[in-house]
Write a structure and sequence with these properties.
25 helices; mainly alpha; Serine Threonine Protein Phosphatase 5, Tetratricopeptide repeat
Amino acid sequence: MKNLRWLIPAALLLATLTWLAIQEQRKPTTIVNPADYATYLVPDHLAKAKAEIGIEKAFWQKKLTTDPDNYIYLTKKASLLSQEFKLTGDVAYLHQSDQILKDINTRIPNQVKVLHLLANNAITQHQFQKAEDYLVQAKAIGNERYTTMLMMCDVRLERGQHILAQDLLDNMESRSQFEFLIRQMKYEDASDNLSGAIQAMEKATQKAQRSGKKALINWSYSNLADMYGHDGRIQQSYDTYLQALANDPADLHSLKGIAWVAFSYEQDTEEAKRILEFLKSVHPIPDYDLLLAEIADFEGDQEQADACRAAFYLEAGKPEYGKMYTTYLAELDRTEIDVLALVEEDVRDRPHPVIFDLKAWTLFRKGNQQAAIDLWEQEVAEQTGEPITAYHAGVMYGALGEKQKARKYLREARAASFELGPVISAEVEQYLRAL
């Protein structure tokens, strides 16, 4: 292994990272004001949203008591169960939705609406090949072809098939609808054209506002806020999260976004933790533990970081989550996990440059440095602008003694410090100093 001094001892690295993150990356402007969102940090909003779904579900269940085999009623119930999963984080609802839809598909095949819902559930579960199979069936039937092609575009982009996704978009007849603009945004983002992606998302948001549909408006605002953050427009990102919350006080994604602004931009770990602990209390999903672990790393609290990651592993590793957390479990690199086998499985279903990057990073951490960089150059280089891939490339090239390439990619990663967060950004600085 070349340049062993490149691999900085963990204890020294942790101490250095904490100091660098505090001293060098603190931003002068304060953006986050707890008074702006205090009214949303209460459980009442989520409880109300759950109750509304419960009322709808009870309505369709009552209809099913008189006509238990009515596939329209069953489809409505399945759709509500999928929404309930997103609202509560309880994956059992998603499986119940899936089972109802699969039963309908067996009993009354060739219902395009059912196939679309099955594909949506498969995408949620990161089963992209299965989603594609459902959409191929829907396309063969021919009904609702426009929606089928839009969803197929989603799957193509998730699988790294950008040329095929572009071909689908180029052949769309209607190019001004909200649904098309969303796919255009995803395509531009995947093509590393962030300004073009933001423009498409801003147009989609205007369409959503004119529609008056609460769900569309909220989804648009929260996603637009994410993109402003990626573009370094932090104040605009924060303000847009607040707009999303004003539209839907039960918008947990936007609260998480504000927690990230507090942590990544202001290094206000106490406020970030306060928001995340609230989210955990009302929406117990594994994701929050992973972010809390990162905050503990930044604070130098290794015991807490380990505890949070262990909690994440115990929950996210449960079989009922399927492939939903494969990438994050692989990044943990725990001894209980055959990481390479996990990543190989993900590559088969989702041969995206970001997943190949994870495989290369896994090989690198296992000591296969040359194999790692060979794979990265073949499957990742020039195919994605995700900052985490630039960080990985910088570290790998540095370990191989290729300092010029290492600097190039580490500087790219440094430019995305908000997106990467204080811990990795501090590592970037440390590696650059070691070159």
